[in-house]
Design a protein that fits this description.
The chain is α/β, with parallel strands linked by helices. It has twelve helices and ten strands. The mean pLDDT is 95.
């Protein structure tokens, strides 16, 4: 691994081997997602607690302060929407030269293993890796399932993650599942957990993140379960405690409740 690649990877994966990525790229297929209508305002109070932002070039340029940011993972796939026929029919939307101009730490794209567009999305990944390796830019593959949530099982996710790593992804983002250790142990590059649909409670989020970390995950790439919460900073700090401070679920949940109470008192 050359110096540039090592340097960019070190911006993402922290010295403890863990990471907390904050995705705000949802608008590329969902439009103005609830509580992400103004991405810059949403993310500003959360920046101290995350290690990197996952974002599109449009929002990066228009909403993120270049003088006060975190390392950027640039979303470079898209071309579909919630009202279209198939979310899996993505293409590459952003050039590697653009990624270089934006001085990003990594780029990310979705792959759709088992879908009608499996072949296209996997070749998108392979071709992107070919180009990015020339510039020392790591690629994060997102093992997306579109609307088919039933696919979030260990056997399928392990298959998808391994294929992504075999094609050259330096980091793989996937969903937490039961028997998550089998997903991680079969993937030779760092695995980060996606949040998926918003969880019912903060405790539920902390529990699955803790389980994933205990079973080998490098960290998380959580968006909606952070910034759609009524107390996003408290959630972010609780998650960071699990990811970087080896906090238990109880300790992290107690921290969340303490910070939540403090926020409520300030508002009175």
């Amino acid at each position: 691994m050359d110096w540039g690649m090592q340097n960019r990877m070190s911006q993402l994966i922290q010295p403890d081997g863990h990471c907390f990525f904050l995705p705000i790229d949802h608008g590329y297929f969902q439009g103005p997602t609830r509580r992400l209508e103004k991405p810059g305002e949403t993310v500003k109070p959360l920046l101290p607690y995350c290690d990197a932002l996952f974002v599109t070039r449009g929002v990066l340029r228009s909403c993120i302060d270049p003088a006060n940011s975190k390392p950027i993972i640039l979303r470079v796939s898209g071309g579909t929407s919630m009202v279209g026929q198939d979310l899996a029919n993505e293409g590459i939307t952003t050039s590697v030269q653009e990624a270089v101009r934006l001085n990003v730490a990594a780029v990310g794209l979705s792959i759709f293993v088992g879908s009608e567009y499996e072949h296209d999305s996997l070749l998108n990944l392979a071709n992107l890796v070919n180009e990015c390796e020339e510039y020392g830019i790591p690629v994060m593959a997102v093992t997306a399932v579109g609307t088919e949530l039933k696919k979030r099982k260990a056997r399928y996710l392990a298959l998808s993650c391994r294929i992504a790593a075999e094609l050259g992804a330096r980091v793989v983002k996937t969903y937490w599942c039961e028997k998550f250790d089998s997903v991680v142990h079969g993937c030779p590059v760092p695995v980060v957990m996606a949040g998926g649909p918003k969880c019912e409670t903060e405790l539920e989020v902390l529990e699955f993140v803790n389980d994933g970390m205990q079973n080998g995950a490098a960290g998380v790439n959580l968006g909606r379960n952070v910034w759609q919460n009524d107390h996003p900073v408290a959630v972010a700090r609780a998650l960071r405690a699990i990811i970087h401070e080896n906090a238990t679920v109880k300790e992290a949940h107690d921290l969340f409740n303490s910070l939540k109470s403090g926020e409520q008192q300030k508002r009175r």
